[in-house]
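Students often ask why inverse folding is considered easier than folding. One informal answer: many sequences map to the same fold, so there is more than one right answer. In these notes we will look at a single instance of the problem. The structure comes first.
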């Protein structure tokens, strides 16, 4: 066999001609026999899932790396899908991809052993900045709907720049684009990206910035995981759109940016208004404006016709005014004479009414004198009646006067202390002092003896 020719015990002779395919096949067979199925650990890099379902990636450590393939029949049973930076262990067979002569591992199983160093650093920085509020949705700004200029921060040699410019030219050829060149990979690239972002803000000549690059491994995208770059994006006065890598790639810049696009092309579509849509909207607005202007012209024409019908020539208007003035003169003359005649007639009527209503002074004076005499007689008779009544009441008062009673021999006894009238003999006691009122005066007396008598014994 050909493989036996390349064994350690026998060397091929110089005249043997070996085809490349046979040589690669022999090497692959030797590798598979020499290195049995084993578990190999490393960090995932350059992971790709093909349309066929096969997985292609590399695993590496600090000193070396090796390519791996895991076919769909094995990959569909894997418990997880490896990501960039994951530290995994693969159960694989060392073999060679014969058509290209590349050494690779044919992976049969995969298991997680922990995340890689770079990915751990990525998670630590992400957690720190998120705790500071740099990724809060309330902080992020809306993109301008119609930017006057668009800025692109990327490498001049990047394929992503061509994709972005092609998309912007297709969608918005009327919008100028300014490129701020900076390396997107390698030593010092993060600092240069940060400097270009600050330069764009200082120049203030664009309305939105696109920070982009194509896909790659976590090492390739590491410049966009820089803390200083993330803070510069946050404090940028110009809205920033991040379009780094593919849809599955995430960087710190994606979280810090105002908008994250899945790809550089997607970022270009987000910042540029589509020219066809703008033209369509402009056509619609133009048509609406034309319709409104047409309706306005029709209304104004109708209003002009109405005003034209009301418009009269100056000569005709003067003739109408002259006729109207003549009519007013006639009406004024007739109104003046009619008012005078009416006033004269009213005066005659008032004179007649005044003559009828004029008072007769002699008759009224005679009536007044008669009423005066009647009033004097009535007053005299009333005085006589009042005088007679007073005399009658005086006589009656004299009859009832206490003085007349005293003159007939009666007396009034009053208690000297209380002044109360004594009405009953029972109140009289020997030694009691009394005041006696008589017809010609009064006297104070003291009772020496009291002999009560019955009332009917008087």
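Output (designed amino acids):
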């Amino acid at each position: 066999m050909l493989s036996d020719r390349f064994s350690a015990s026998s060397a091929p002779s110089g005249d043997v001609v070996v085809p490349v395919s046979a040589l690669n096949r022999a090497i692959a067979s030797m590798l598979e026999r020499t290195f049995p199925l084993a578990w190999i650990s490393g960090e995932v890099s350059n992971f790709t899932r093909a349309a066929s379902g096969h997985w292609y990636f590399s695993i590496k450590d600090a000193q070396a790396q090796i390519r791996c393939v895991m076919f769909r029949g094995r990959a569909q049973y894997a418990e997880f899908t490896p990501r960039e930076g994951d530290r995994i262990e693969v159960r694989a067979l060392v073999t060679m991809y014969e058509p290209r002569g590349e050494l690779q591992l044919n992976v049969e199983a995969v298991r997680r052993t922990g995340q890689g160093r770079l990915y751990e650093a990525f998670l630590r920085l992400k957690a720190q900045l998120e705790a500071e509020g740099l990724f809060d949705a309330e902080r992020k700004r809306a993109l301008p709907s119609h930017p006057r200029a668009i800025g692109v921060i990327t490498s001049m040699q990047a394929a992503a720049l061509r994709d972005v410019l092609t998309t912007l030219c297709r969608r918005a050829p009327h919008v100028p684009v300014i490129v701020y060149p900076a390396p997107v990979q390698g030593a010092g690239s993060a600092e240069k990206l940060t400097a270009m972002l600050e330069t764009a803000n200082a120049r203030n000549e664009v309305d939105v910035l696109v920070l982009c690059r194509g896909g790659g491994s976590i090492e390739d995208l590491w410049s966009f995981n820089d803390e200083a770059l993330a803070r510069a994006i946050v404090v940028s006065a110009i809205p920033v759109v991040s379009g780094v890598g593919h849809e599955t790639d995430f960087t710190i810049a994606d979280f810090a940016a105002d908008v994250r696009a899945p790809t550089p092309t997607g970022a270009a579509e987000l910042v540029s208004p589509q020219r066809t849509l703008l033209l369509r909207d402009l056509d619609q607005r133009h048509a609406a404006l034309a319709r409104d202007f047409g309706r306005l012209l029709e209304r104004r024409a109708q209003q002009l016709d109405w005003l034209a019908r009301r418009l009269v020539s100056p000569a005709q208007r003067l003739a109408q005014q002259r006729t109207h003035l003549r009519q007013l003169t006639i009406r004024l003359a007739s109104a003046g004479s009619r008012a005078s005649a009416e006033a004269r007639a009213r005066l005659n009527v008032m004179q007649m009414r005044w003559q009828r209503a004029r008072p007769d002074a002699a008759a009224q004076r005679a009536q007044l004198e008669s009423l005066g005499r009647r009033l004097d007689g009535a007053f005299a008779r009333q005085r006589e009646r009042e005088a007679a009544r007073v005399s009658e009441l005086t006589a009656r008062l004299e009859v009832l006067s206490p003085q007349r009673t005293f003159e007939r021999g009666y007396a009034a006894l009053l208690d000297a202390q209380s002044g109360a009238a004594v009405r009953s003999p029972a109140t009289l006691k020997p030694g009691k002092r009394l005041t006696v009122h008589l017809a010609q005066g009064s006297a104070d007396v003291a009772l020496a003896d009291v002999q009560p008598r019955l009332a009917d014994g008087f």
